[in-house]
Amino acid sequence: MAAAHTFTVTEVCGEFRVRAVCPGPVGNVRCVPSSPSPAAGPAPTRVRDRRADLLVTLAALALALWVTSGMWRDPNSRAITVNSSDQALFEWLLAFGGHALTHGQNPLYTTLINVPDGVNLAVNTSITVYAAVFAPLTYLIGPPATFLVILTLNLAATAVAWYWLLSRHLVRSRLAAGVGALFIAFCPAMVSHANAHLNWTAGWLVPLLIWGVFRLRRPGRAVTGGIVLGLLVAVAFSIAAEGLFFTALALGVFLVVWALHPARRSEVRAALPRMAAGLGVTALVAGALLAYPLWLHFLGPQRFHGTGFDPLIHSEDIAAYGSYPRRSLAGWAGWGTSLAPNPTEENSFFGVPLLLLAAACFALLWRRADRAFRATLAALGVTAVVFAVLSWGPTVKWSGRRFDQTLPFGVLDNLPVINAALPSRLALVVAPVIGLLLAYAIDSLRARPPRRRVSGLAWALGFAAALLPLVPTPLLTSVREPIPQFITSGAWQRYVPPDGVLTPLPLTVDVYPDGQRWQAYALAHRQGEFRIPSGFFLGPGGPEGRGRIGPVPRTFDSLMDQAGRTGLVPIITDGSIRESRADLRYWGVQAVVLPDRVHGAKFDVDEEALRRTATALLGPPERVEDVWLWRVPA
C-alpha cells in the first residue's frame, strides 16, 4: 500500500498528521483522503467538510448573538446588569483610543481622567488594538454599539479559532472539532466574563498563540514563524495582557511535561534549536513593539505593583468545580450556585457530570494511545491539575468555608507579576484542556466505534448529560440612565473652556460610571475634550504599595458618596466647606453637574440628597437643560 500511495507528514502540537489516500485510521496513524485531481471535481469528503465548517461558524455566531441578545434591542440604552461599570469603562476606552489615534495623543497615558495626575493605561486593560481597529465604527455608531459588536464577535471568533486549530491540526473529525471548540468558547467561564470583559472574551488569541508556538518546530520557520508569533504576542498584550501571561504559563507547563516524557526526548532534542531560534526572533519582534508599553507598565508614572484585590476573596472555591453556573440551562432550572466572588468570575463551574466525562475521556484516550500520544495526554493532565490547584488561592475554601491549609498560590503570591493575577482566573486554563479531551475522545470514538451498541449509547448519553446543562442563557441586561441632553447637545461647552474640567455628581468611580460615559460620548461625537477628576481605573494608593480602584478619596467626593449611597445629607461644617472648595481648586473644576437621574452600577443613587449636599457646600445651583449646575470660580 505504501508503494501505491503518497504520504505527507507534518508535525503540529506534538502529533504526527499523515495525509494519504487510505480511508480511515491505520494503527496509530490517522489518514485522510488526498486531494482529488482537478478533473475529478470536489470530493464528497471535502464538500462535507466545508459544510461542517459553515455549520460550526453559524452555530458560533448564533450562540454569541443569543448570549448578548438582551443588549441588541437598544445598545445605547441597555447595560449588562451585573457589571455596567466595566461596560462603561470599555466603552470609554474605545472612545478614548479612537480619539487619541485621530488626534495624535498618547493612547497609553491620559490626563482626561484623574486630573491632575492622569492615568497610566499600560497597567490597565487599555485594549489599544481594538480601539484603533474599530475607531471608524466607534465614530459611526457610538461606543455602546461598538462595545456590543466586539463582545459578540469575541465569542464567535473564539469558537471559530479553536475549531480551526482542532480541525486543521489536531483531530480528523469535524464533529469532534466543533464540539470541542463550541464548548471552549461558550464554557461557563467565557459566558461569565461576557459580562462586559472585552479582554477575557478575546479567547480567539489563545489558539493562534498555540499554533504560533508549535509552528516554530518546523524547519525553516525560525524567522517567519518568530515574526508572526511576535506580532501575535504584541496584539495579545494590548488586548489581554493577563490572558497572555496565563497562556504563556500554561504552554510552559505543558511543554516541560511533554518534553520530559521518554517518548518525546529525541524529538525535543532535534526541535530545540529551531524552537530557541524562533523564540529569539519572537522576543526581538515583540520586544521592539512593546518596549514603550512595557516601560510604562513597570517604570512609568502612576504605576503600581500588584492589585488591590484580595486573593482570599478572588480565589476559586473547590466545590465550584462541580457546581453549575447561573447563566446556563442548569442555572435557569435553579441548580446554579453563588460560590463565585461575583457573577463575572464563574471561572470553573463545570458540573459533576462534565468532570466525570472528562475523566472518562482521558481514560479512553490513555488506553488507546501509543507512547507518543500519551506524552500529550500526560502534559494536558498535569497542566489542568496545576492550574486548578493554583486557582484555589492561598488557602483551601470549600462551599464558602475557609480552612487554614496553605496552598501553592500562597507561596507564589509575593512574586512579581504573579501578585497582580487573580487566582480564581487561573481556572480559565482548565476549560480548554477539557475541550481538547472532548474533541480527542469524539475523534477516537468515530475512528474506532465501540463494539457494543450499548457502549456507544452510554457515551452519547454521557456527553448529553454533561454538556446540555451548560448551554448558556442570555446575559442579564437592564435599562440604564440616558446621557443628559446637557452633554448630547454640546451645551457643556458654554460652561467649560477647552481642556477644562467638569465633574458629575457623585464623582466618577467604578460604582458611578456616568462621568466616563459622558466623556466617551463627547469624544466619539467630536464635541471636544473636557476632563474629569477621579475615574474608574487602577492606580497607585493601595495598601503596601499595591494598586487601588480610583484615586485616594478626598473630602468633597467622600461627602458626595455618602449622600448618594445613604440618601442622607452629611453634617456640613465650615471646615468641610473649605476643604471641599479646596478639592475643587486642586482638580481645577469649572462646573459641577448633577443630572436628574444618576446611574449607580451597584445600588440606587439618591439624587435629591446629592443636590442638597452640593447646595450646602457650593450654594444654589442653576438649571441648564436637564441638569443642575454649579459654577466654580477660579
Automatic annotation (TrEMBL):
Keywords: Membrane, Transmembrane, Transmembrane helix. The keyword Membrane applies. The chain crosses the membrane at residues 54-72, 147-166, 173-191, 197-214, 221-239, 245-263, 275-295, 348-366, 373-393, 422-442, 454-471. It holds the Pfam family DUF6311. Residues 106-411 form the DUF6311 domain. It comes from the Bacteria. This is DUF2079 domain-containing protein. The keyword Membrane applies.
